[in-house]
Amino acid sequence: MNRGEWGVRAGRGRLLLIFGVVLVVLVGAGAAALALSDPGPAKRVCPSGELCGEPPKLAEPLRNLESYSSSTLGYSVEFSGDRWKAADQDEDSVVLESKEADLLLILDGRPTGAAGINSMIEDRVSSLRKRIFSLERDEDDDAQVLGPNVGYRDGTAQSYAGTIDTPQGARAQLAIVLMGASDGRVGVLATVVTGEQNPERRRAVFGRADSVLNTVTWKDS
């Protein structure tokens, strides 16, 4: 493995944190401090095409339950404080950083019915294109979301792939899923981001995000 590949893998955790908190649709002011935080120890490098260690286990019960509630829109979400960290939040949005996987989950709310979800996705894609090189729809079968929903409300999902600069100067590949749903009054858009490229491990990582999205509840529901 050359030095550039090592830089991509070693910087990925910090890379995703920086990526999540600099999105202009979110909080903004507190993002700089988060971007400068300690990235932590580098993960062991996995040879290309091989699995390293065990994939994230999804069957364990949630412990140390925490929650976020939108003060303006009324939707809420629960997550395990042992598995997730609320890296940033405001009255409509929250950034959750996985403590166990290469994963960010960003929830963003907006007053809209189901017809407005596509507009939310389009706005997010436009924002992402300003920060991610060669952002394109990912049409691979492994990247498709079957039965998209948020908080058990049927929704819409699109998968994307692109590259972003790492702190080491190299570029890393990102897999991104945008999935949104509405209760008829409020729309919630989830942006799920990982640098994991192995299809099997990527499915497991996205499964972690899905388990959080299933806890979304809607005002007066």
In short:
This protein has 221 residues and is an alpha+beta fold.
What features would you describe in this structure?
With 221 residues, the chain is of the alpha+beta class. The protein has a single domain, classed as 3-Layer(aba) Sandwich (Protein Transport Mog1p, Chain A), CATH 3.40.1000. Helices cover 23% and strands 32% of the residues. The protein has helices spanning 3-10, 12-21, 31-35, 117-129, 199-213, and strands at 65-69, 76-80, 84-89, 93-98, 104-111, 133-137, 149-150, 153-165, 171-182, 186-194. The strands form 2 sheets. Strands 3, 4, 5, 6, 7, 8, 9 and 10 form an 8-stranded antiparallel beta sheet that branches. It has a two-stranded antiparallel ribbon with strand order 1-2. Strand 9 and strand 10 (186-194) form a beta hairpin. The longest helix is centred in the C-terminal third of the chain and has 15 residues, at 199-213. It is globular. Mean pLDDT is 77; it is low at 1-11 and 24-61.
Structural class by secondary-structure content: alpha+beta
Helix content: 10-25%
The coarse silhouette is globular
Number of helices: 5
Span of the ends, CA to CA: 52 Å
**Mind telling me which CATH architecture this is?**
3-Layer(aba) Sandwich
Assembly context of the chains: single chain
Q: In the CATH hierarchy, what is the class? A: Alpha Beta
How would the blueprint of this fold be written?
Elements: H1 3-10, H2 12-21, H3 31-35, E1 65-69, E2 76-80, E3 84-89, E4 93-98, E5 104-111, H4 117-129, E6 133-137, E7 149-150, E8 153-165, E9 171-182, E10 186-194, H5 199-213
Antiparallel strand pairs: 1-2, 3-4, 4-5, 5-10, 6-8, 7-8, 8-9, 9-10
